[in-house]
Design a protein that fits this description.
mainly alpha, 434 Repressor (Amino-terminal Domain)
């Protein structure tokens, strides 16, 4: 039996590169925040215009179809929803620390 690898996130496990995993982590955070915001605001799909998207597009967002959205599209939707988006950049610690 081989020793199992451990990953910081599911994206680290399934993505081909650390950069791709970082983008996917950011996209998933934006997507989940948007889903929660829309659900908390009790926005009906008929009211999707406040985000500047169609009802089918809102349905894709609420269904978590992350592959159908770019990072940039999700950032624009977050701003349209009245959310502030920030990215924190910091030096990476060497492995084992």
């Amino acid at each position: 039996m081989t020793e199992q690898e451990s990953y910081a996130s599911v994206w680290d496990a399934i993505c081909d590169s650390p950069g791709e995993a970082t983008v996917m982590r950011l996209k998933s955070e934006l997507l989940m925040t948007l889903q929660l915001h829309v659900k908390n605001c009790l926005v009906k799909q008929e009211e999707a215009a406040f985000l500047g998207i169609t009802r089918p597009r809102l349905a894709e967002l609420l269904q978590g179809k992350i592959d159908l959205f770019t990072f940039e599209q999700l950032a624009h939707l977050a701003v349209a929803a009245g959310l502030d988006v920030e990215i924190q950049i910091k030096p990476r610690l060497p492995e084992g620390h």
